[in-house]
Amino acid sequence: MTKQNVVVSDVKCGINDMISVVPKGSLFPSTGQKPPKAPDGYVSISRNKFLKKLETGGGARINPWVESMRASSPTHIKSNPSLSSTVHQEDSWIQLDHPSALNMFEQIMSASKGKQIVMFLDYDGTLSPIVDDPDRAFMSRAMRAAVKAVARYFPTAIVSGRCRDKVYSFVRLAELYYAGSHGMDIKGPAKGPRYSKGNEPVLFQPASEFLPMIDEVYKALVEKIKSIPGAKVEHNRFCVSVHFRCVDEKKWGSLAEQVRAVLKEYPKLRLSQGRKVLEIRPTIKWDKGRALEFLLESLGYANCSNVLPVYIGDDRTDEDAFKVLRDKGLGFGILVSKIPKDTNASYSLQEPSEVMLFLHRLVEWQRPSRGRPRESKIYNTST
Ligand SMILES: O=P(O)(O)OC[C@H]1O[C@H](O[C@H]2O[C@H](CO)[C@@H](O)[C@H](O)[C@H]2O)[C@H](O)[C@@H](O)[C@@H]1O
């Protein structure tokens, strides 16, 4: 069992009070969901015990929030003991279970024969390297050029936890789809019949009724955590991020406690985790996986067998999209990670520079001038 694998529930308290700390799940799952039975390898403890542990402030006891926060962005393989016992396991993860998408490029491409590739790209940690200051997570010019080239041949979407305008300000490519706020704010390019059903640009915001609540919780969080050095609250329009990358680990417990205190007042919001970040979002059943399905449908590929979606992402929230692909037996998920992680992705890439290489290879493969017959339809963005 990894330290992350803790499910906390209290049937007496009802569904809304259930808390889970799972690798890719939310800490406060959506209203309406049944309390899950702890899956194999997970431990179930009562909510009362969980809160008590939190209230003791740690000491000799384990604070599940802090444990989960620690596990949220392990810097080396030792942080994930279940996967790190031998070098052999690491080798097996990369070579057998989730081989490099670069090494497997030909196989991936052969699966695309006669199919339209659709590209889905996460932003932070996938197109841009992880940095301390979220406002300075710029993507390189070379990466922008690679994404632009890919989008000439394949419909391409950026799917991010960030607010859509913010991620657009980093990527600055008007020809792409953007799904911000973990897919809760989707917008297609303004021009081009191939980009939308009919002639209207795609726009979809399934959580708009939550806007006032998100504003309120953002303000409350800013106020609550201002005394914690290094903590940062980011307004992502339909969700809020609380960053702890620059917070001293000794303060993580008190940060978690402050966030918990605010969230107690908002049962319609839930908490999930990303890389050194707590993510607060509406309890609606919508995530990056649903956004991927929505986008495929908008492009006219709902229930189609002639489409090959490729989703590249590095974070727990990307797992929702990997899972949709895996469950549907459609396309491929590619996890960006240097270390073994539990994932529903099929392949791996180590870091953004490898993502860029993969994008270059896609373009090279598709380019007719190489003398190679085109095996996938050309997605013409000039109309
Ligand atoms: O879905 P994504 O595009 O991957 O967005 C997820 C979160 O990414 C950003 O935070 C992460 O990147 C920051 C910059 O490198 C880093 O400082 C932080 O620790 C990471 O968690 C973004 O700031 C968040 O709002 C997104 O939710």
> How many domains in all?
2
Distance between the termini: 53 Å
Shape: globular
Give start-end ranges of low-pLDDT stretches. 1-62, 75-79, 377-383
- Helical content band: 25-40%
Average pLDDT score = 80
- β-strand percent reads 15-25%
Write the layout of secondary structure elements.
Layout: E1 6-9, E2 19-21, E3 43-46, H1 47-55, H2 64-71, H3 81-84, H4 87-97, H5 105-110, E4 116-121, H6 141-153, E5 156-159, H7 164-171, E6 177-180, E7 185-187, E8 203-204, H8 211-225, E9 232-235, E10 240-243, H9 252-263, E11 269-274, E12 277-282, H10 288-298, E13 307-313, H11 319-328, E14 332-336, E15 347-349, H12 352-366
Parallel strand pairs: 1-3, 4-5, 4-13, 5-6, 13-14, 14-15
Antiparallel strand pairs: 1-2, 6-7, 7-8, 9-10, 10-12, 11-12
The ligand O=P(O)(O)OC[C@H]1O[C@H](O[C@H]2O[C@H](CO)[C@@H](O)[C@H](O)[C@H]2O)[C@H](O)[C@@H](O)[C@@H]1O binds next to strand 10 and strand 12.
Describe this structure in words.
The chain is α/β, with parallel strands linked by helices and 383 residues long. The protein folds into two domains: 140 residues, Trehalose-6-phosphate phosphatase related protein, domain 2 (Alpha-Beta Plaits, 2-Layer Sandwich); 199 residues, Rossmann fold, CATH 3.40.50.1000. It is 32% helix and 17% strand. The protein is built from twelve helices and 15 strands. The strands form three sheets. Strands 8-7-6-5-4-13-14-15 form an eight-stranded mixed sheet, sandwiched between helices. It has a four-stranded antiparallel sheet with strand order 9-10-12-11, covered by helices on one side. A three-stranded mixed sheet has the order 2-1-3. Helix 6 packs parallel to helix 12 and helix 10 crosses helix 11. It starts with 5 loop residues before the first strand and ends in a 17-residue tail after the last helix. The structure holds the ligand O=P(O)(O)OC[C@H]1O[C@H](O[C@H]2O[C@H](CO)[C@@H](O)[C@H](O)[C@H]2O)[C@H](O)[C@@H](O)[C@@H]1O. The site of ligand L263DTV3 has 24 residues, from strand 10 and strand 12. The ligand O=P(O)(O)OC[C@H]1O[C@H](O[C@H]2O[C@H](CO)[C@@H](O)[C@H](O)[C@H]2O)[C@H](O)[C@@H](O)[C@@H]1O binds next to strand 10 and strand 12.
